[in-house]
Design goal:
Number of helices: 13
Largest sheet: 4 strands, antiparallel
Oligomer: single chain
Strand order of the largest sheet: 1-2-3-4
Order of helices and strands: HHHHHEHHHHEEEHHHH
Number of domains: 3
Radius of gyration: 26 Å
Distance between the termini: 43 Å
Helix content: 25-40%
Length: about 350
């Protein structure tokens, strides 16, 4: 139960003013612009777009600025803004086979058709602080390399030719929309993937790491990780065909998992899948590992009781906005609740002390 606090409105207004002052920081230091955040903090922008379910780098950058760098708060702002937008149609499913890749690697095939493209990555850096950045030193220009424009075949397609990997069943059924419908369990794989895409990166990473430490039957290889831009197309009824309305950058990960077979499936490789807005490699790989762990029932595997195999546990606790809202509400006044519990504890103590005195006599 919440109770009113006298003078609360004035205190809240003052808190807002103080927050704005803290957000701005020292006026002698130049203020960050939206363009600077969008271009130089791109990975943070990508996370906000992915977990906020809205692809708009400028709005994500604005949210990061307003939230003082608190990415979960920025995600909250984006989701709240998203609810105000009209929905006038739906696009076709993107075709990642036609992706213009800036990065594409495989841990399963060295000489993959289309080649390995390292792209912009921290993987091969020494993780040493670069003090040239503190001194505003110029970064030497990178070799100019255009994204691969021709279609890049998926690695798992080569395994498919030999029938060594489980085939994915095609479906024309429209998947449920988690942003418009409440989650109902057990959910379809499409619903689970939506929840994981919107899930907190740290939580999904922790679940994925647990699968690698033995808390699920999940021996995985990164079959392919690709990053690039894909066309977004929309069917126009008046025209009778689809037109391209823009491009988005996405990260896609397919894992190849060892599978010794079950009562319903033969020995083969199985898949995990991740697809996230922007360059978000860690999230896409984590998502693919957890996706595979959650598929134990459809593959006829035994439930090992691992946290990453528990659909309800994973999906209901991965949403950082719901988690934050529930956690932070305990900061609000609970004076009446606490007083009642305080009286209860006092009464229990009196009764316990009385029982002790009777036993002593």
């Amino acid at each position: 139960m919440y109770v009113a606090v006298k003078g609360g409105e004035r205190a809240i207004e003052n808190a807002h003013s103080w927050l704005a002052e803290e957000r701005r920081g020292d006026p002698a230091v130049a203020e960050l612009t939206i363009d600077q955040i969008r271009e130089q903090m791109k990975l943070a922008v990508n996370r906000v777009m992915a977990e906020g379910s809205l692809y708009d780098p400028d709005l994500a950058a604005l949210a990061i600025k307003q939230a003082r760098g608190d990415l979960i708060e920025a995600i909250f702002l984006i989701r709240a803004y998203r609810t105000t937008l009209p929905r006038f149609g739906a696009t076709r499913a993107i075709d990642t086979g036609d992706m213009a890749c800036i990065r594409r690697i495989s841990a399963t095939f060295k000489d993959a058709p289309g080649g390995q493209v390292l792209g912009p990555t921290f993987d091969y850096t020494h993780r040493l602080l670069d003090f040239k950045l503190a001194a505003d030193g110029e970064v030497p220009p990178a070799p100019q390399a255009a994204p691969r424009q021709e279609p890049t075949p998926h690695i798992t397609g080569f395994l498919n030719r030999e029938g060594l990997i489980q085939a994915e069943a095609a479906s024309d059924e429209t998947p449920p929309d988690l942003t418009r419908e409440p989650m109902e369990l057990p959910g379809s794989r499409a619903l689970r993937l939506q929840a994981l895409t919107r899930g907190d990166e740290g939580f999904v990473l922790g679940m994925a790491y647990s699968t690698q430490r033995g808390y699920a039957r999940n021996h995985a290889f990164v079959g392919e990780l690709r990053i690039g831009t894909v066309a977004v197309e929309m069917d126009i009824p008046e025209l009778g065909f689809a037109i391209e309305i823009g491009e988005i950058e996405v990260t896609e990960c397919e894992t190849v998992n060892q599978f010794t077979g079950s009562k319903t499936e033969p020995p083969q490789f199985t898949r995990g899948y991740g697809l996230v807005f922007g360059q978000t490699e860690r999230k896409a790989i984590s998502m693919a590992l957890v996706d595979r762990a959650l598929r134990w029932r459809e593959l006829g595997e035994d439930d090992m009781g691992a946290p990453a195999q528990d659909e309800e546990f994973v999906l209901y606790h991965s949403d950082n906005i719901q988690a934050t809202g529930f956690l932070e509400h305990i900061k609000l006044p609970h004076y009446v609740d606490f007083q009642s519990e305080l009286e209860l504890v006092r009464r229990l103590r009196r009764e316990a002390e009385g029982a002790q005195q009777e036993a002593a006599e």
